[in-house]
């Protein structure tokens, strides 16, 4: 049958269909531990860190925006497939499943590959250096799909700083990194390091964060200092213990889960907290609980030696909480007055004292943090570089 539509109308309809395809996509995101945030678990059996938070927030935003999103996570006893917040969540494998020495291939590789195939996505997204980058890249190469990779830490940007001790994992990461169709970085520094060390270009993309509708004034909050992170050596939790010891007049809180490879660090930190009557030690908490911790804090403290772009900074600023930190990504804290950048415990103690001794100055800094969050952390603003990479 002959098409009765005019050529111009046919062309217009085709253009409209093409635009629809460009504006909507099937997206698969891979993060083994993301189930901990998606299901708001207590973290006892699953690692909950910044990348897991970003995965959960981003997948929900993409689903709300009309995309078909699949999240591939580990097996923590949940159903094989679940619908959460508009996202299809598929489980892959349990960490203790399989025979040691062979479990990388079965069930880990086989289950991950099956999950990637079941997602039937147009584009696949993974963040953080690891073997999964190479696995997803190989899948995308074989099936003609696109791969978008996002750097999660400064350490991801050079062979000498990779936090991957397994030669196989390092090789798979390098294989995938060089085959990604698009690479995103958290900071200008990361993009520069990637170009210097790998000769690869990355676009800078911000981070997703919850933004409370209202926040308390600093004077109405009960906690003077808050520290929140996974307890790993690079986070230096013992520095915060030293801070609290030097500031007995302040009300302080500390939260974070143990790193399986550094259980002794967690034990030492917990033991050190018991000798400090002005410190409330929470240990591992649910992601949902962190919202109340930030809501009642006057100052957030970060003592890390290096990071990517901490999610905790975004949570702090969204709640109008200044950051006193030993890590200042792209100099943003000092440049925009979002807290105080320091280099050691003595500097952090002095900065905290100075901020709390000046209620008007603390309130002004809190207002700057909140204003920054409102203007820079809106999901429509943050999502732009991600969508450009995913929908290219």
Structure description:
- The longest helix has 18 residues, at 359-376.
- This protein is an alpha/beta fold and 392 residues long.
- Strand 5, helix 5 (131-143) and strand 6 form a beta-alpha-beta unit.
- An 8-stranded mixed sheet has the order 3-4-2-1-5-6-7-8, sandwiched between helices. A 6-stranded parallel sheet has the order 11-10-9-12-13-14, with helices on both faces.
- The radius of gyration is 22 Å and the shape is globular.
- The chain has 15 helices and 14 strands.
- 44% of the residues lie in helices and 16% in strands.
- It has helices at 7-23, 35-38, 50-64, 104-119, 131-143, 167-177, 188-198, 237-246, 263-274, 287-295, 311-318, 332-336, 345-356, 359-376, 379-390; strands at residues 26-30, 68-73, 81-84, 87-91, 123-127, 146-150, 182-185, 203-204, 223-228, 252-255, 279-283, 297-302, 323-325, 339-341.
- Residues 49-202 form the Glycosyltransferase subfamily 4-like N-terminal domain.
- It comes from Massilia aquatica.
- Pfam families: Glyco_trans_1_4 (PF13692), Glyco_trans_4_4 (PF13579).
Secondary structure elements and pairings:
Elements: H1 7-23, E1 26-30, H2 35-38, H3 50-64, E2 68-73, E3 81-84, E4 87-91, H4 104-119, E5 123-127, H5 131-143, E6 146-150, H6 167-177, E7 182-185, H7 188-198, E8 203-204, E9 223-228, H8 237-246, E10 252-255, H9 263-274, E11 279-283, H10 287-295, E12 297-302, H11 311-318, E13 323-325, H12 332-336, E14 339-341, H13 345-356, H14 359-376, H15 379-390
Parallel strand pairs: 1-2, 1-5, 2-4, 5-6, 6-7, 7-8, 9-10, 9-12, 10-11, 12-13, 13-14
Antiparallel strand pairs: 3-4
Helix pairs in contact: 5-6, 8-13, 11-14
């Amino acid at each position: 049958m002959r098409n009765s539509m005019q050529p111009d109308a046919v062309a217009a309809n085709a253009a409209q269909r093409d635009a629809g395809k460009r504006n909507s996509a099937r997206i698969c995101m891979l993060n083994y531990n993301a189930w901990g945030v998606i299901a708001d678990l207590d973290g006892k059996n699953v690692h909950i860190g910044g990348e897991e938070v970003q995965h959960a927030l981003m997948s929900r935003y993409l689903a709300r925006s009309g995309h078909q999103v699949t999240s591939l996570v580990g097996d923590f006893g949940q159903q094989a497939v679940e619908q959460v917040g508009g996202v299809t969540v598929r489980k892959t494998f349990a960490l203790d499943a399989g025979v040691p020495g062979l479990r990388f291939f079965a069930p880990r590789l086989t289950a991950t590959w099956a999950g990637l195939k079941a997602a039937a996505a147009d584009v696949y997204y993974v963040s953080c250096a690891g073997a999964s980058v190479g696995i997803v890249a190989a899948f995308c190469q074989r099936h003609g799909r696109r791969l978008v990779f996002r750097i999660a830490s400064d350490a991801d940007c050079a062979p000498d700083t990779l936090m991957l001790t397994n030669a196989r994992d390092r090789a798979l990461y390098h294989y995938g990194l060089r085959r990604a169709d698009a690479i995103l970085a958290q900071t200008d520094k990361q993009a520069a390091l990637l170009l210097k060390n790998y000769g690869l270009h990355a676009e800078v993309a911000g981070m997703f964060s919850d933004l409370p509708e209202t926040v308390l004034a600093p004077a109405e909050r009960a906690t003077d200092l808050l520290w929140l992170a996974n307890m790993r050596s690079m986070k230096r939790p013992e520095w915060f213990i030293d801070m609290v010891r030097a500031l007995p007049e302040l009300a302080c809180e500390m939260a974070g889960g143990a790193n399986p490879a550094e259980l002794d660090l967690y034990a030492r930190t917990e033991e050190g907290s018991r000798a400090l009557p002005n410190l409330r030690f929470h240990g591992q908490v649910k992601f949902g609980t962190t919202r109340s911790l930030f809501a009642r804090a006057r100052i957030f403290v970060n003592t890390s030696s290096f990071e990517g772009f901490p999610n905790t900074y975004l949570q702090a600023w969204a709640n109008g909480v200044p950051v006193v930190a030993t890590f200042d990504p792209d100099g943003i804290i000092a440049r925009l007055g979002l807290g105080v950048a320091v280099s050691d415990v003595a500097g952090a103690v002095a900065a905290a004292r100075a901020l709390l001794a000046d209620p008007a100055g603390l309130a002004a800094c809190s207002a700057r943090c909140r204003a920054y969050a409102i203007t820079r952390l809106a999901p429509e603003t943050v999502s732009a570089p991600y969508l450009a990479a995913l929908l290219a």
